Every structure is written in structure tokens, then in C-alpha cells.
Amino acid sequence: MSDFRPVQMSSPVLTVRRVDSYHAITVVAPGVAERFRSGQFIAIAVGGEQSSMLLRRAFAVHDVKPDYGGTVEFLFAVRGKGTAWLAERRSRDLLDIIGPLGKPFPLPRDPVNCVLVGGGYGSAPLFPLAQALRRRGCRVDFVLGAASSDKVLGAMAARRLAETATFTTEDGSFGVRGRVTDALGQVIEDARSDVVYTCGPMPMLREVTALGVRHDIPVQALVEETMACGTGVCMSCVVPVVGGDGITRMVRSCVDGPVFRGERIRFDDVGTIPFDALGAPGWKARTDDDYPAREAG
Amino acid sequence: MSDFRPVQMSSPVLTVRRVDSYHAITVVAPGVAERFRSGQFIAIAVGGEQSSMLLRRAFAVHDVKPDYGGTVEFLFAVRGKGTAWLAERRSRDLLDIIGPLGKPFPLPRDPVNCVLVGGGYGSAPLFPLAQALRRRGCRVDFVLGAASSDKVLGAMAARRLAETATFTTEDGSFGVRGRVTDALGQVIEDARSDVVYTCGPMPMLREVTALGVRHDIPVQALVEETMACGTGVCMSCVVPVVGGDGITRMVRSCVDGPVFRGERIRFDDVGTIPFDALGAPGWKARTDDDYPAREAG
Amino acid sequence: MTPDLRVRLGDIELANPIMTAAGCAGSGRELAQFFDIARIGALVTKSVMVEPRAGRPAPRVAETPSGMLSAVGFQGPGIEVFLQRDLPWLLSRGGRAVVSVAGGSPQEYAELARRLSDASGVTMIEVNLSSPNLAERGRHFAHDAGAAARVVNAVRAKTRSDIPVFAKLSPDVPDLVALAQECVAAGADGLSMVNTVRGMAIDPVTMRPAVAGGVGGLSGPAIRPIAIACVYEVHAALPKVPLIGMGGVRTGSDALEFVLAGASAVAVGTVIFNDPSACVRILREFEQALVDRGVGRAADLVGAAHRPPGPRHDDDHRGRPRGEGR
Amino acid sequence: MTPDLRVRLGDIELANPIMTAAGCAGSGRELAQFFDIARIGALVTKSVMVEPRAGRPAPRVAETPSGMLSAVGFQGPGIEVFLQRDLPWLLSRGGRAVVSVAGGSPQEYAELARRLSDASGVTMIEVNLSSPNLAERGRHFAHDAGAAARVVNAVRAKTRSDIPVFAKLSPDVPDLVALAQECVAAGADGLSMVNTVRGMAIDPVTMRPAVAGGVGGLSGPAIRPIAIACVYEVHAALPKVPLIGMGGVRTGSDALEFVLAGASAVAVGTVIFNDPSACVRILREFEQALVDRGVGRAADLVGAAHRPPGPRHDDDHRGRPRGEGR
Ligand SMILES: Cc1cc2nc3c(=O)[nH]c(=O)nc-3n(C[C@H](O)[C@H](O)[C@H](O)COP(=O)(O)OP(=O)(O)OC[C@H]3O[C@@H](n4cnc5c(N)ncnc54)[C@H](O)[C@@H]3O)c2cc1C
Ligand SMILES: Cc1cc2nc3c(=O)[nH]c(=O)nc-3n(C[C@H](O)[C@H](O)[C@H](O)COP(=O)(O)OP(=O)(O)OC[C@H]3O[C@@H](n4cnc5c(N)ncnc54)[C@H](O)[C@@H]3O)c2cc1C
Ligand SMILES: Cc1cc2nc3c(=O)[nH]c(=O)nc-3n(C[C@H](O)[C@H](O)[C@H](O)COP(=O)(O)O)c2cc1C
Ligand SMILES: Cc1cc2nc3c(=O)[nH]c(=O)nc-3n(C[C@H](O)[C@H](O)[C@H](O)COP(=O)(O)O)c2cc1C
Ligand code: FES
Ligand code: FES
Asked: What global pTM score does this model have?
């Protein structure tokens, strides 16, 4: 276990480039690269030693390479102050990064058919996943969507890695007009998918999960709840998730996730404390017997 | 008057280099360069837009050149967080600077003999002054001191610009062992100095002023009181100074100074509110008659 | 379409909601080197007292993370010189003058109000209650609702009826809402919030308090969340009372935060030391923020954060609107 | 020569003054991935309650300038699981366990104290008084000196005599020194200061409060000057009472600031989120600061900023010791 624990390091920036409408930064981070498994993420301190921004920013790992002992690439859109600062980095600057963090995507033992569904930059973690699945002989199909064509991430790579790659844009500027869920059902049927892996905004994860349930295949969803530390100590990133025992708990998406079985996430209750969650106001410890077993939210 | 008002600008860094044990940064700042007169300073915002450091840092202008429309050089020792950040700048970075600020050194009308006395980085503003004085045909002598040889600033330039250049170090590693005031008396006599210009730590300014008084020549002292804004709005940089009317006032060194007649600075009362200062606790408005005329503190 | 930036503060109207905070802009002369002071909603002067004041000894300020500590001690020339020299200058440049007053007793405040009412051109009087009450061993008026009310009452009584009187409150009081209510009952036409927060720093080199006198006032972006909470709470309790919000405004978005919390106007203080052009920059950014949100009138947003959550809020629960840009 | 870093907190001694702040380090398990938790003075656990708690809805945190707002709402597993799972783990790694407790009534606090006293290995109990008092419509115990004293009294009565009880105070109370005195009179062996400061932020995109529930607790370097003022004042009033100082400690020099102001030990909170190795880094920097100053014993500096100014201070008046390095 101790070999898998995250490392904190001051990583030199190797390259900064644009990928579609995203910024891509590659850092030299051997410790992170060697431990990484797909679905894990890194958390970066932004603004330097005298920064007024104290909270780390979480980013999915988009690529890992063996060069220089191990490099890690992440992609991001400028969203607020921290990503604006990151976008100004140049090669040789140092970034204080921690990783790899979180639980990885569970990989199937057998060479099954996998469909990978990403929204916007949420596609990033699906690329190392696709490679890992391919190494296990799995069939990989991609469904990638975004608001517009410039925000669809990695179309070329998707085509290269996957059996099929379907694209959706809300404005119809690329691929199918609509949302990923408008195309996903067909892909699942055509590819006879056995499992869905997905990452993107919460409403998309909910729809993808619903579709998985309808097709009776499991969904592995990578959630991005607002995070402050990434290491499990701040309790900010909680999501209501139903456990194997049927009890809903407010679990930390940074250490207990970010990957969860989609069916176990209580999407409709995200942003609330469900009344029946462990320790919710009015909640009382119950014996196993009088607690109704439930498998999905 | 409006031509002399300071400008605020985002100035690209041209070069960063080491000068003795100091860092020297040259920025392209035409507006500042064209308005600058020796003794004035610039105030720099540090740490970028998301910086936790809100207060500007003041630096004497060490050199002004006509290249690129006008460049300004300042020198500094790393002292705290702000100067540490400045020391990491590279060329093409932008610095938010304001200048020129403060009242310049008054220049003599006639070609008199001037001795320029600097301590540590306090020597920096004396170099453009020396050039201005030379242009007016004045004789210039330098007395530069510091704790050790590596902190004596601009020995070469001083030798080049001045009739004589005397150096003192407290550890004796360069020039005369001791303080600038140990050498200054002799220089004043040898050079038949008519006026002293000085910049350095407050205790040094006090000693130099006392020496000037003993030799009965005026002293123009550039003080460096802690500054927060540099533009006259925060009231942090006050020093007790006796006015032409004999009344002591708490004056702002950033706009009413930083250059004052040494004899008018109440050195022994710096860091206090002298009981007889205008508006001091217990102070009462007096008629001109019953107020004793005083010229020096 | 350019948004309508006009805001009302009691009976007066300002061209836009961006002002300077008292003590952070002198009387406008220094800042006029950097921008046209007639362009901002109003200039709030440094608190003026009856007599000239030398203030507190140096060091008067210390930098703290995203803030500063200060203890200036009301250094100023006194009302006489202010009326002769500073006020006319400010008016001659087309500035709207909000004059901040401070005293050691209700009588001193009243005298200031009377003299300012006799002068012409004063847009508003802001009563700085964080001034030591001489009768109470230097306790600030703001720390005693009764004393604060007496001061406000005295000022209102001596102030010309067409000049609104705003009471300026400090956040570290036992019960801010109660104090606000007392001030309004005593005749305040509105409230300014907040003054600095009590703080201290130790210089790790000298091992002594960093500001002479030990305690100082903390200001700057560091205190913004404290100030927002105060504005939000007082607006919730007294929704009809106009508020001027301040405390760490650095950007147009920060100013918007205060407006959403319930402020009709927003003052910029410490950040002026960092950026002397801050007020006009913030005004520009604020206007752009309205344009970006398709808001036509600044006044419509005052207190908007208090409104019951609409569908937008609902969206928020399902993962913030961050999916938007994807 | 390595300085002697040991400090006393009442009857116990810590190897060094650097601790974690409650709620910012879990029970040590996560941080143990980054450093050996046996190396720091003590690990203060997240406040434990009698029953499991789900806490408050997300969003629970918002970043603010040099700080953060949080409203976690005491999410935790309850004392049962804590004693079975978390405490033994911490002790097995050689950590010194300071257990923070929170409840809705003096009785709940007392029960926690009793159960912790029955367990073995608890170094100290920290009583978090910023917990809603169920009998008083959720007002925090810390806001009512009487209620706070009842809680401290109940805890002290049920706690084994060799376990010191520290009361943790919040800075936004009407009279901190009076509250501190009440707590000590009620049996507190020492005080921890400060808890978070009341604050709020509005999300300029959603135009709603940034943390669910509106008000949150402000922490981080932004509040350090507020915390330093509290420690300084309480140490001045109660110089014999050991204090644990906290609020925005980011560097060894910040920790030194708290010690100079009067704290015997210093806790690191929010900065751990930025730097999970912060505690050991700060410990190293603190030790180096003592070496640089030629100080042999950390304990000698406790409250040093209160000592009458020596010649060094005098020097300071004449332009700070900044001439030194020239
Ligand atoms: C597991 C995980 C993986 C992610 N992977 C990527 C990625 O590959 N590419 C990418 O562009 N973005 C990714 N994000 C989102 C990314 O963390 C945010 O875009 C970023 O933190 C925004 O920072 P900011 O300073 O620009 O915004 P600000 O709004 O200034 O951030 C303020 C605070 O809110 C948090 N925050 C804001 N938005 C988000 C968000 N969407 N998710 C989590 N925390 C947020 C920040 O971490 C910070 O603490 C991921 C988030 C998570 C949790
Ligand atoms: C008119 C004038 C000219 C100066 N010229 C030079 C120069 O040419 N080269 C040089 O190295 N230094 C010069 N200084 C001093 C320089 O401003 C400080 O060294 C610098 O501000 C320290 O910043 P810091 O962030 O490293 O230190 P910090 O201690 O982190 O600074 C904290 C705050 O204190 C203020 N401060 C700290 N030390 C001083 C000081 N000595 N004088 C004024 N304010 C201070 C800073 O401006 C800042 O607001 C000058 C100061 C003044 C007033
Ligand atoms: C150096 C300084 C001087 C101040 N002087 C005054 C003053 O004279 N009168 C007053 O009411 N407030 C005064 N204040 C408080 C500010 O007006 C403002 O209320 C406070 O600083 C919070 O705003 P800010 O964070 O934008 O600075 C002063 C603040 C500072 C920093
Ligand atoms: C996310 C978070 C959770 C906290 N939880 C607790 C807690 O459970 N019990 C407690 O006494 N204090 C709690 N605190 C307060 C801290 O222990 C500390 O007193 C405060 O944050 C100031 O220190 P800092 O600025 O170093 O964080 C919490 C603070 C934060 C930011
Ligand atoms: S981000 Fe801090 S616990 Fe998950
Ligand atoms: S530095 Fe602000 S008034 Fe002089």
C-alpha cells in the first residue's frame, strides 16, 4: 500500500502548449508518473509562495510518459484565478504538485467492451484509461461531447485509440448535434458495450448513469466535486453515495473517489444532505434489520 | 506642474543582473524616464494580480537611459518577500510601476563642491545626482560605506564620476575600516565641500547631518521611512520635520520628501510624535509671537 | 447597451456606486494625478477632526497576508484648513464630496456637522464611529450603542436637512445589527460598513509589535468575507436602509459581491495603495460585469443574494454552472 | 547547537510546539502519507461528537484572499468509531493525540470526556466551544460566557485528572478576555485560540452565497492578525495560562509570531490544505529561526513581545534594524 501513496513534489514544467481550446502542461514528476493509474488526479498549488490562493486545484492526468524519469501531462480550460495563473507558466517554472490522488478506475479482468463517455475537459482522464483497457485487450469506443467543436477534447487521439469514436456538440459545429446521451444508446447497442466509463459535469454523469441502468450495464463515473485539498483532510468534496450495506454516506470524492459506481451516487441529492444519510439531522442509528436494503439512489 | 506628475505603467523588464551583491533590474518606462529628476523614486507592485502582498515597494532610481524610449534601472538587496519576488523576475516579465515619485534633490545654481555620502544601497540615488551635478560643473566627491566590501555599491562608477571616491567598510574588507562619518570630515576639508548629499539608514543620516552642522554646510538627506503607497494617500511614511516657520510637522516622506534638509529632520524624535509637533497630544494652536523660532531639531 | 449605473443613497443620487473609503484617498489631490476624480460616484475624505492632529508614531503600518494593519491616528489638518484648502480644491475638480468626521465627544462631532453644513458643496457626511470617546477612557463610540446613537443624533441635529448622514460601523462590536438599528433610530440616513478589524502583528526581527502602539486596524481583501457578512446581515435586518459597503474591494467582481449582499454603493480603500487608479479600473470592471450578465441597472442587483433561490440556484446544486463553458 | 524545542502546556510536555489544528488533519491518517506524524508536537483531531454526523451540504468551502470560508458542519463518525478505529491508529503511529470534542449540550461534552478518559493514550482534550448550543436555538457556546463555563466545568469534572482540558475560543465574541477568564475559572487548564471568524462570500456567477448555508468560518493567513491580537490580549490578561495559538500559520516565522505574542504551542490548520507537509516544514523553519536568533530554548520566547522594549527596540525607532545588512 505504501508504494501507492501520493507524493508531493516541486516539478519543473517541461512544455506548455495548446490542445484544441485547452492548455496542456507537461511536468517532470517521476514519483507521480510511476505510481499513476488511470482515473487518478493531481492537485496543484497555484500562485507561488506568496499567493493569496490557498486551495489546490485538481486536474485529471491526461498522459504519462517515461521521458526524464517520468512526465505527467494535464489539460485545462482557464476558468478562474488559479487556471489563469497556470496558463501563464513557462517551461522551467516549478509547480508544487501532489499525486497521484484518489482511487483509479477499476479495470475489468476480462477483455470486455468498454464505452468511454467524456464531456469537455472531462475527456482528459479517459485517454490513459483507453490505453490501459487496450492493453488488456478490451474493445474501446469513445463518445465525446462538448458545447462546441473547439471544446471537444482529443478527437484525433480518440479515433486512433478506439474502435469507434462518436462526437456530439450542443451547437452542432462538430459531429452529432446534441449531448453525449443522445448518441450513447446507439453506441452501446452497436458495440455491445459491457461497461461505461464516464467523466464530465454532474448533470451529464447523471444522464449517462441513467442510460447505463436502462441498458443494464455498470457505469464507472469520475466526479468533480469542488475540492480544496485533494488529500482527504478538508471534507469539502463530499457526495452522497450509497454503500454496499445500503447506507448513504457523505463520502469524500478525493479519497473515496473520484471514481464511483454511477448507480451508487445519489445524483438528485448532490448539494444536499439526504435525510437518510448516515448522521443526517434526525438520523438515528438503526439495526441492519430495519434498514431497507437499497442498491441505487 | 502636470507634466511632472507620476505615471503608473506596466513596464516590461529589459534586463536583470547582479551588481556587486545587489540585484539590478532595468525596465522600459518612457514616461518615468523622461520625467525623472535625481532623488526621485519608483514604487512597484509585487507578486502579480493575485498577490497577497498589497503594499508597493519603493526603490531609488539608479540609472535612466534613453534606449527604447526611456529605461529606468533600480538596484535592490533581497530583504523580505517582495524583494525575493523581484529577484526572480526575468526579462519580458511585466512590472507595475509608478514614478517618478517624491521631491528631487535640489541642485545648486552655481558650480559648487558637493560631497555625496551613501550607505549600502543608499548609494543608488547618488549616481544620477552625481551626473546632474557634473553637468552643472560642480565638483563631486563620493564617500560610500557599507558593512562589508560586497555591499559597497558602485565603487567603479564612483571613481569614474567623482574627483575623489572614499570607501569605508565596517569590517575593514575594503577602504577605510569604520563608518562613512569616520572619513567624511577629512573629505569635506580636503574638497572644501559646500554641500552634502546623503542617503542611507536613518542613524547614518543623523551622523552625517551632525557633521555637516559642525562644518557649517547644508545637508540634503534622502530618507527611507517605511512606505505603503508611495503616492501620499496612506500617511504611513511620516517623519518629524521642522518647517520654515519653526513648527514641527509630521510630514510624509513620499511626497514632501524623500529629500529633506538634514538639519530640519528631528532625528532623535523619529518614531515618536514630538510633544511640540503640530497637532500632537496636548498641542495647542499658538500665535506666531509666542512660538519660539527654531531652525533645527 | 451601457448599463445604468446610478444608485440612490437616501435622498441623493450618485452617478455610479464606486467611491473611495475614508482615509485611503486623502481629499483627492494625490489620486487626481492618476485619474479624473469626477468620474467616480464620490470621494470620501479622510476623517476630519476639529483641531489639527499629528497622529500616531511610526511605524504606522505593516503588511499582512492580503491585507494591512494600520494605526495612523487621524493625522490631519483640522476642519479649518480642510474647509479653506481641501474641500474647495475637491469641488473645483468636479468631485462629489462625502466628508468623514471624527471627534472625541458628541459635541465635537456636532461642531463639525455645523461647519460642514455652513460650507457649500458637501454631498454627505459620514460619521466615523471608530474614534476614541474621550469621556469613556478612549473606548470607541462604535463599541457602545448608546454613545454611538448620541453622536449620530448630535450630527443629524446640526446637519442641513438636504445632506444625508451615514454612520460608519466597525465589525468588531458585540451586536452589529442592534448597533445599526440604534444608529438609524438616532437619525442616520444610511450606514457605511465596515471599518477596519482589530488586529496585530509581531515583527519577527525586532520581536515587538509591528505597528507602534501594538494594536492596529486590519483592512484589505483579507477582511472582505467579514465585511460581506456584515453587509448581508444588516441588509437582511434593515432592507430599507441604504448601505455603503467596503472592506477589501479589489476588482469589479468584488464590488458586485457587496452590491449583491445589499450595498447600494461600494468604497475602495486599501487597494488604492496598491493601485492608485483602482477606483476607475473597478468601475470599468463593474460595468463590464453587468454587461456580461445582461443586467441593465446596477440598482436592480442591490441585495439580490437575499432573493429566494431561482432555477439557477437549483442548477448550482447539481454541480455549479461550470458545465456551461465546456 | 540545536535549540531545545520542548514546551509545557499545563502539566504535559510536548517535544515541540507545532501541532495540527482541529478539523484540518483528520485523525492523522491522510497526513501520515506525507510525513511521520510522530515528529510534530501533537495531532489535534477533528472535533468528535457523540453520534455520527453527516455535516452540511456542499458547497462547503470557498476560497477567499489568503483564506477560505468553510462550513463543514462537524461531519464525523461519532465517538464510538473514533475510539475503535481512529485513536488506536494514531497512537500506533506514535502520534500524540489531542482530541477535540464538540456537543450540543454540557451533557454531551461530559459524555465525550468520560469516554475519552476511559480510553488510554489521550494527551489532552480540547473543548471546541464553537458548536451550536441546542438549548439556545443554536447559538454557539462561545458566545455566552455562562454556557461556555458550564461546558468546561462538565468536561473537567469527567476528565481524568492527568489529562489537561483546553477550551477553544472564537474571536468574534463580545469580550474575549472575560470569556477566557470564565473558562479558566471553570477549570480549563489552558486555552486554544482562535477558531474561525464569521464570514461570507457571494458567488458572482450564481449571485448566491458561495457556501451552502450562507455564513461560514473564515480561516487562513488572512485572519492571522486577528488571531495574534487575541493571543496577545489574553496572554497579557492571564500570563500564567498556557495558550495554543492558531490562525493562518504558514511559515516558521508565523509560528514564532504566535509564540512571541504569548502562545506556548502553535497549531497549523488551513495551510495544511495547501501543503500537506506544512507541519514538518514549519517545524524546521521555526527551529532555524531560533538558531538564527541565537535562542537556545523555544520556551524562553513565549510572550517575549510583551517585555518592555530593550535597546533593540530603541534602535527600531531610528529606522528599524534594516541598516544591519548593508
Ligand atoms: C478530480 C478532478 C479532476 C479535474 N480535472 C480537470 C481537468 O482535467 N481539466 C480541467 O480544466 N479542470 C479539471 N477539474 C476542474 C478544476 O479543478 C477546476 O477547473 C479548477 O480548480 C478551477 O480553478 P480556478 O482557480 O480557475 O477557479 P476558481 O473558481 O478560482 O477556484 C476556486 C476554488 O474552487 C475549486 N473549484 C472550482 N471549480 C472547480 C471544479 N470544476 N472542480 C473542482 N474544484 C473546483 C478550486 O479547486 C478552488 O479551490 C477537475 C476537478 C476535479 C475535482
Ligand atoms: C524612497 C525609498 C527608496 C528606496 N530605495 C531602495 C533601493 O534603491 N534599493 C533597495 O534595496 N531598497 C530601497 N528602499 C527600501 C525598499 O523599499 C525595501 O527594501 C523594500 O520595500 C523591502 O521590501 P520586502 O518586501 O523585501 O520587505 P518586507 O519587509 O516584506 O516589506 C514589507 C513592507 O514594509 C515596507 N518596507 C520594508 N522595508 C522598508 C524600507 N527599508 N524602506 C521602506 N519601506 C520598507 C515595504 O515597502 C512593504 O510595504 C527604498 C525605500 C524608500 C522609502
Ligand atoms: C491607512 C488607513 C486609514 C484609514 N483612515 C480612516 C479614516 O480616517 N476614517 C474612516 O472612517 N476610516 C478609515 N479607514 C478605514 C477605511 O475607510 C475602510 O473602512 C477599511 O479600511 C476597509 O476597507 P478596505 O479594506 O478597502 O481598506 C482607514 C483605513 C486605512 C487602511
Ligand atoms: C475546514 C475546516 C474545518 C475545521 N474544523 C474544526 C473542528 O472540527 N473543530 C475545531 O475546533 N476547529 C475547526 N476548525 C478551525 C481550525 O481548527 C482553526 O481554529 C482555524 O481554522 C484557524 O486556523 P487556520 O487559519 O490555521 O486554519 C476548522 C477549520 C477549517 C478550515
Ligand atoms: S478535497 Fe479535501 S477532503 Fe476532498
Ligand atoms: S507612503 Fe503612503 S503616504 Fe507616504
From this structure: 0.94
